[in-house]
Amino acid sequence: MTVQSNDFLIKYFIPVQQGMPERRYDLDWLRILIFGLLIFYHIGMLYVADWGFHFKSVYQSETLANFMLIVEPWRMASLWIISGIAIRFILVKVSLLRYTFVRSLRLLLPLLFGVLVIVPPQLYVEMTTNGALDMSYWQFYLAMFTDNNTLFVNYQPGIWPHWDVNHLWYLRSLWEYSLAIILLLPLLNSSLITNTSNWLFKQHLGVILLILSVPIFIIQITWEQDTNRYPLGFTFLLYGYLIGWHAHFWQQLTINLKPLLLTFAFLVIVFISFYNTVWLTLNDSTPSWLIIMGMLIYSVVRVAGVLTVLALAYRYLNKKSPSLSYFNEAVYPFYIVHQTIIIVLAYNLAPLELGPIIEPLSVILLTILLCFICFEIIRRSDILKPLFGVRIKKNHSKTIKNMGYIFGCLLIIPIGLEIIF
Q1: Is the pTM of this model over 0.85?
Q2: Residue 149's pLDDT band (boundaries 50, 70, 90)?
Q3: Which of 13, 193, 260, 282 has the fewest CB within 10 Å, making it most exposed?
Q4: Per DSSP, what are the bridge partners of residue 61?
């Protein structure tokens, strides 16, 4: 490779390393906490009234929606921001080829395993509850391998016919975005974007909040509600990449933590009030300007929520801990298995009629316990680790490593091609 081509790569594809911290423990902890929150959020989906889910308990509450709405706007947006920041950290340490290879194996192997093994019980419960099934799980599972089975005529969407990603859509989208961001690196690392980012992150936090909310608002009002999570996720991931370790941005969060908390609390109250007074009563006579106003509130509360949790984590969680490594490793296994555990547990507990207190508590405690048990099994098996996104630490021979890489690549090619095309 010539010196000139090296200069091109450095200029357009490698982020500037100046001022990069050794490790951001606050982002590690925040990622762990948000994935943990996701477990409680999905348990809440069993019990919140009027919100669709694969299985619903008979003990449903309309009030619960108000608590869910406190975290709903920013929970996934925060994960995408963290993912974008992480990608920027990774790209200054490894080559684009290694980044693409490792990223693909670590995301697509768990996605493939999840689609084929972890997710199907959710569909079985959903179809059984809807009266579309009258068979054992194993009969149902074997039927899934037939393309034209009329059993799934109303359950076709997915990576393949009636094989869907369900809650694992994050892994699929993260892989897509990880590749897309490579194509955008010349633009993202250009002087235009760098200078614009530098200008923005030196402004007052209120200005940053409003400017970052504009693209989110545009997506909210121009995309269908069922599909807007994809452009929203990619936008927040780009925000994370641009934020990176930008000193002025993190300084602004530190200085304005209290005003940011008050702003977010006020916006949440307005947002929940709008949901209860307008959104729940939407009809053909509802003025369009009122709906647009609601989308504006929703967009701003999304960004405000993300900035608030980033600020709180940066202020209180940027500390190393012996347990950090354990929980960092547990994130993907917990994420992959938790929703299936929740749905299967709730489905089997429903006939016991435990009541609106004992049943949710049982689901919470048993879900957490079973997630830990699954993780303890996974972390002890080098065969299971790649299937759940966990790094293998044991120093195997070069031959075994190469065989593993080749076998892994062969496994993920079909699902990778299906996602792209």
Answers
A1: yes
A2: confident
A3: 282
A4: 48
